[in-house]
């Protein structure tokens, strides 16, 4: 795990430098040629599927990449990700979470106790993996790095705030159970999940670890991985 941690620190430092450079370049390009800047940001948006989201147009999210709030939010996510303990081949961190009914449990315990439910909800791959959505700190809170025309959710100040926000996700019918991270963000930290990340856990171990979102968020890669496990 020492080498994995070392690689994590190195990669985080590289991503941080890239983010700072990106913010500076976008600012300069916008000053020189706003149209060229828009073209380049749209190209980036294609990689994170933002351009495919019918709920947002470029003006809602594109200009935020040259904002200080983008730097502040992304830097916080990277700092917290340094505490991650979930690595492929290692034990999956059994971090505490809270069910939508407000009951305390943990990631691995919830998966074990609710396995029959998963098999009903996730028919394609329930024979090789357990499914669970852990709702963590809001990536684009209204009082943080916000997108225009997004759902109005402020930073969670209490567990009640987080549970209330998670209800919006539940209403979207994610086809698997939803739990929420505790207010100390312990699950998000141990899994390096901010702003979003995909994992496959099997028998209490991490067998797949997706890249850090939004650029590394790739559901199709997860599907391909699970198909190979069948």
UniProtKB/TrEMBL annotation:
Keywords: Membrane, Oxidoreductase, Selenocysteine, Thyroid hormones biosynthesis, Transmembrane, Transmembrane helix. The keyword Transmembrane helix applies. Coiled coil: none annotated. InterPro entries: Iodothyronine_deiodinase. The keyword Membrane applies. One of its GO terms (biological process) is hormone biosynthetic process. It catalyses: 3-iodo-L-thyronine + iodide + A + H(+) = 3,3'-diiodo-L-thyronine + AH2; 3,3'-diiodo-L-thyronine sulfate + iodide + A + H(+) = 3,3',5'-triiodo-L-thyronine sulfate + AH2; 3,3'-diiodo-L-thyronine sulfate + iodide + A + H(+) = 3,3',5-triiodo-L-thyronine sulfate + AH2; 3,3',5'-triiodo-L-thyronine sulfate + iodide + A + H(+) = L-thyroxine sulfate + AH2. Gene3D superfamilies: Glutaredoxin (3.40.30.10). Signal peptide: none annotated. One of its GO terms (molecular function) is thyroxine 5'-deiodinase activity. The chain crosses the membrane at residues 6-29. Pfam families: T4_deiodinase. Belongs to the iodothyronine deiodinase family. Responsible for the deiodination of T4 (3,5,3',5'-tetraiodothyronine). This is Iodothyronine deiodinase. It comes from Seriola lalandi dorsalis.
């Amino acid at each position: 795990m020492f080498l994995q941690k070392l690689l994590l620190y190195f990669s985080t430092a590289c991503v941080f430098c890239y983010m700072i450079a990106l913010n500076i370049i976008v600012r300069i390009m916008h000053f020189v040629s706003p149209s060229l800047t828009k073209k380049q940001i749209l190209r980036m948006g294609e990689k994170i599927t933002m351009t495919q989201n019918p709920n947002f147009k470029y003006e809602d999210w594109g200009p935020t990449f040259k904002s200080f709030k983008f730097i502040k939010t992304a830097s916080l996510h990277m700092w917290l990700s340094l505490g991650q303990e979930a690595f492929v081949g290692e034990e999956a961190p059994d971090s505490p979470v809270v069910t939508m009914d407000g009951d305390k449990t943990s990631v691995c315990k919830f998966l074990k106790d609710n396995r029959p439910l998963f098999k009903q909800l996730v028919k394609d791959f329930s024979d090789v993996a357990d499914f669970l959505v852990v709702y963590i700190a809001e990536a684009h809170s209204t009082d943080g790095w916000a997108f225009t025309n997004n759902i109005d959710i402020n930073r969670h100040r209490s567990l009640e705030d987080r549970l209330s926000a998670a209800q919006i996700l539940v209403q979207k019918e994610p086809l698997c159970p939803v739990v929420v991270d505790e207010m100390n963000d312990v699950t998000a930290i141990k899994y390096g999940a901010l702003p979003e990340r995909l994992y496959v856990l099997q028998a209490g171990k991490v067998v797949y670890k997706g890249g850090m979102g939004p650029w590394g968020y790739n559901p199709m890669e997860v599907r391909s991985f699970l198909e190979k496990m069948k």
